[in-house]
Each structure stands twice: as structure tokens, then as C-alpha cells.
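Quick log. Single chain, no ligands specified.
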Amino acid sequence: MGEHGPAADEHIREEEAVDVEWSGNWVAGRLGVELVGDGELRELLGLALRRNPKRAHLLVSNVLGKHVPQRPSVVHGVGYELGERVRNLLGEAEARRAVVLGYAETATGLGHAVADGLGVAPYLHSTRRPVPGVAQAGGFEEAHSHATSHLLLPEDPDLLKATAGGSPLVLVDDEFSTGNTVLNTIRALHARYPRDRYVIVALVDMRSEADRGRLAEFAQEIGARVDLVARARGTVRLPEGILEKGRSLVAEHDARDSGPVASGSFAPRPPVRVALDWPAGVPDGGRHGFTPVHRAALEAALPAMGARIADALGEARRVLVLGFEELMYAPLRLATALEDATTAEVRYSTTTRSPVLAVDDPGYAIRSRLVFPAHDAPADGPGDRYAYNVAGAGFDAVVAVVDSTADTPALHAPDGLLARLAGHTDRVVLAVVPSYVPSPTPHRQEAAMLPEPLRGPAFSSYAAEDVGWLLQDLSDTVLEAPTEEREEAIQSGGAHYAESLPVEYQPSPQYQELFKAALDTSATRIARAVGTVTETVLAERGPRPVLVSLARAGTPVGVLMRRWAQHRHGLDLPHYAVSIVRGRGIDANALRWLAAHHDPADVVFVDGWTGKGAITRELAAALEEFAVAHPECGSFDPEIAVLADPGGCVRTYGTREDFLIPSACLNSTVSGLISRTVLRSDLVGPHDFHGAKFYRELADTDVSGLFLDTVAARFDEVAGAVDAEAKELLAADRAPTWEGWAAVERISEEYGIHDVNLVKPGVGETTRVLLRRVPWKILAKRGAGADLDHVRLLAEQRGVPVEEVAELPYTCVGLIHPKYTRGATGADGTAVTAK
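-> predicted structure:
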């Protein structure tokens, strides 16, 4: 197992004795940062400067194995000793029921070593690498990090669930600074997997006095015991203005070009690839879970793998084993095995995403850096990666350990990691650990065959992070038909409305001005409704819901809800758009994709507004049918969250007023340039998503961004009102009244229509009638003001009468021409009969 406990302590002191200057002096002297605490603190930590606008300084651990090469037995031994302390704290019975959770990227190896110290606990670490076909069991954000989103992707969906006898959750991070990240994680997981005990483990506890008191308060708040185990304790004293001073110092040294080592003195030679013979079935780490059975199998295989690496090193006497970002534990254990297999001096560290200033000074923790492009096709796109304290450190061999996912052409490119290493060492050895692929359930296998969501700018004018469209792109297919032709086909039963598209309405300059005036007038009211419905969702549906808007009216609302959560709470909520078609149900393939990538219990369906509640009923029926047909996918909650619920059809809403939502005034040009959705058997196969078109040619008239930005600009202005309204709503009886449905049935009979589908209540639905269907007449509530200016203009343009009505539960109601044929003349449909 390598060296642990006191032996590891001796190694730390031995390493520090070689270099008497503290590796934090440079930063402390220039920025006035003070490190105060246990006597061991300066042996454990140095200081460097981040390239991060959220935090100026970086605590650089000498024993973590991330930025500073260290003896692998020391790195593993420090974590192992912390795990032994946790086991003693919990006792044997509770230790056997515990689960250990480490943080990506810096603490994945530390957390695994802590789990080794417990010896009897499974291990999982968070990840920033999504894996197709593996459902997410949770996630959380790390506010100060350069890359914040953490995913939890256990192969066993029950891994994080508490058992009847109690199962403590042990959370491991390299440092416990303010405590925000860990406490937010516990809060998020406790909402989904409540338990009565948590243990926080860190190398160093650096909280201030104010932060220390929060832990006890937090434990009382959630009704659980929360313990803390740390190697050392202290605090960092930061002077005022440190962010500005840090940025200036980084800029000054960048101007001197003192950062990365650009080239080395060694003539590059091709790397030597070593076959590890990694044990079959053993995961490469804790991304999907690592059990005590896996641990035993790995321990048995390590000596032989260490010997193979030693053979590939030749006469090298000073060796670095270099891991890769989240892949910390497998390289660490290969390095401990190499220590046992050779007399060479062995050190261990890993590459990282973290951008840090390098200064070649003995009083600074990061002496050099190598820069190279990412080589694992990361989900968030390409970018630079770094290896610190490797160049100029005198290693005559480097063993680069990556997983097979990262063994790509980019790794071997002229500017890739292997080439960068070759310029600074005589020999580069490449060891590839097979990336572990969880055994997928049948529904995950099927869902993995479905395409990934479409995103802007390739599909829609929304930013890629705003929404993922679970649709197929039919932009090159002719689908538009004249409105009158579509109406006749629909009413005669010859076609379904979702089999074709109306010709996109091109607003006149006068109408466009009405839209802008309406947006300016209503932006504050919309912002309040957005805030209120989002706060209600966050309070009732957990800390990290997955927003799924019903395309397309729901999509702008989903984007705004996502922006509210981000602006007010720093949450980066996933958001997708799916198709639902009246009479045909919701896209089942989209639901299968969602179930494979997220917990269905987290999914919150979003729409713009309710009319009579037809879509509300459609969704409930479709989800019930889906649950019967696909029980393996779990259950989706049919509750829809809407901006406005004038029909009294849902219990999660921003307001029940029937007012103008300007996104209802236009079609694609306020919805990311996306058409309404299409479902036609010759275009949408059994394994396809429903379709839609991206109207790129309308970019000059696109106001999608204007709508979002105008409303979001009012968020701060309405924050106080939203807090009060959300609190009031959460305490109120919000049961649906279905008042709107009753009114529609009454109107349908009173006006001789006898078909509720031809009665479209509310400002939004009335606007749709005027833009997409053949309208018969408009009923307007007497005294309705500016909310109906655009309706009156459209009605005038189409020759449709507007009838004022005294008793109307909506601001207006649009009536579709009953029994329409193209032989009908005028607007008075009462005289029209079908052919």
C-alpha cells in the first residue's frame, strides 16, 4: 500500500528541509497575504497567483500531487491517514455504510486515498466530463472556480441513497476555505438523498472565525450531524484590494514574458508506449463509482504494472509520473507501485485546467509551466491546459498517464502534451488506462443512439448555453402552406396542424413598433413573473432543476428562468426544448434522452402561458402513457411551470393575470428563429426527434436577444417584489380552478361553434389565431387597454371584427373560423357551411 501516517510525515519534513525558503514568500511580500495557523501549515502550503477574476491567490499544496511534484507515497499516505481518522470517528459499523465523495478536479485522488484509508467504503468523485448514456444523479456549482459545473454520474443509481441503518456521506476536498462549496453540495444532496450524518475531510481547514460558526448553524438547519476532519488548520489574511493588486501583478509579469517555458533543451524523441495490462472490469477512477471489490483487484495488479513501467524507463534515475486532470488516482497508484519496483527517485503530479502565473523564484510555489491544448475533446470546448513545475525540474524521464478517451491525435500533435514534455526530458513514456464505460441499461443504450441536442448558433439564434433543442433540423424541407389551405385541411380532417407550417408572418414597420413599445411597457411585469415562477420552482423542485420548455412558446420563458437562477443564485441550470403536439402527445424520444441524462424527478416542464389548459391535459396524459410504456425510464412530473396562468390550469406560475407577453406577438423572430414543431410520418421516424426549421434568412428581423436582454435588465429592479410574491405564493392555495376551461365551453356553445379547439382564450392564444389560423372574430374584455393594441392592429389588417364583451375571464378570446373552406367569404363565418 505504500507508506502511510508517520512515514509520510517524515517524507514531508525531509522534502521541506531541502529548500529552506517558504514557497509563499514571493506572494506574501508583494500582496501582503498572511498564512496563519498550525506549525505544519507552511510545510503543506505555498502561494501563487491565479489567472482568475474571482480570486487572486492560490493555496498550492505540497502534498496533493496537483501542481507540485511530490513523492507518490507521501501523496497517497496523507489521504490514507485522513481516511483512517474518519474510520475511527465513525466506528466500524458506520464506516461500512459510508460513501466517500471527492471533488473534481483537484481532490479526485485525495478522495480516493481517503476511501482507501476507510478501506470498506465505495468511492465516487464529481466530474466535469459528461458521459453519454449515464444518468446524472445530481450536480452542484463551485462559485470561485474557473470551471464550475460538477456532475455526479454513478453507475449504481442507488449509490448516494441513504440506507435504513444510516449511511454517512464523507465529502473530501483539498481545502475548506469559506465552506460554501461543500455546504452547498450537502444542501443539494440532502434535498434528494437525506441522511443524518456527514463528514467533511480536507487537507487544510482555512475558514475564518465567521465561517466556522456557520457549520454548526448549517447542521442544525438540515437536522444532521456534520463533522470536520482536517490535516492542519489556519486562515489566510487578505489585504483590501487584493483582486486588483493580483491582476496588476499578473499583468506586470505577463508583460515581462516570465510565465510559460516555451521551449526545452532536449531534442524531441517519440514517446515509448507501455502496455499496462490494466485489470479487466476495474474502473480508471471514481467517476462512476469504485467499490472495495475494485480496490482489491487493483491492489493485486499494481506490482506487475509498476514493474512494466520500470522496464520502460531504462536507466532513468529521476522520474515524474504525470497524471491527467481528473485522472489522479490511477497515475498515483501506478507511481506508488513504481516506487516499490525501482531504486529511481519518483515524483508524482498531474496536469490541470487551472491557469496560474509561473514565476521562477524559490519563494514562489509555481516555478514553471507548460501550456498545451486539451486533448480529451472536453464538453465545454477546446482550451489550454497546464503542467506546472515540470520544465526545469531535472526529470530525466516522464511517465504520462492518460485514459483512453484522452489518447487522441491532439495528445500526439506537435504542440500537444507529449511534444511539450519531450522538450524537457530525455524520455517520455506513455501509459494509457482504459476509460471505464458503465454497463448501460437497455434504455440508456437506446438513448445513447439518439443525437445530442441542437444548439446555437448552428440551430437557433440563442446562445449554445441558453437551450439545447431536442429536435431534428428540417430547415431544408419545404413545409410551409398558405394559412387558408392549412385551415381547410385541418378542419376537414385531411391533415393535422403539426404536419405543415404556416407561412411566417412578416410584421409591418407599424407592428414592429408596437412590439417594441409593448416590450418596453411590460418588461418589468414579465421580469416579476419570471422571478416569481423561478423562485417557486427552486423552492419546490429542488436546488438544481432541469428546465424543459415546450417548444416553442415555452422556450423564451425557459431561457429567462435560467438567467434568473444564474443572476440571483449563481446556478447554471440545464435547459432543453422539446416538442408537444395536441392530439399526438410529447416527443417520447426526447423523454428517453432526458431520462438517460438526468433524473426525471428533476425535470420541470415550462410553457409561456395557459389558455384553456389543453396542453396541460395533453402533457399529463402523454407522460402517463410514457410511464406505462417505459417504466425503466422513471416518472416525470406533469406539472407545468408557466409565466402566466389566466386559465387557472396549473399551480406553478408567475401570475394569473391575462396580460400581454410580447413574445406572443411574433413567431420565430422572438423564439430564436425556430419554427413551430413538425410531426409527420415521412419526416419523423420511430427513432427521431420531432422536427423544426431554423429560419436563418430572418436574422435581420430577429428580436429574440432584444426580448431576453430587455427583460433580464429589470431583474434587480423587481428582486424585492419577487421575494415577497414568491413567499406569499408558496404559502397560498394554488390548486387549479380550471375557470378558463369552463369559460371556453360556455363561449363555444354561446357562439354556435360547438368545438372548444376553435376557441383560443387569452392574449397569447388570440395573437396566435391572428398570426397562424383563419380568425372569425375577436372577443375583447370591455376596457382592455394597451395589452390589446397589437391584437386590434392585426384584426384590422385581416378584416376581423373585434367584439367588446363585459363578462370575460380573459383580456380577450380569439375564435377560429368555424367549418372553414376556401369558398367562405368575409369574416362572418355563421353563414359558412362545409363543402
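The chain is about 35% helix and 20% strand.
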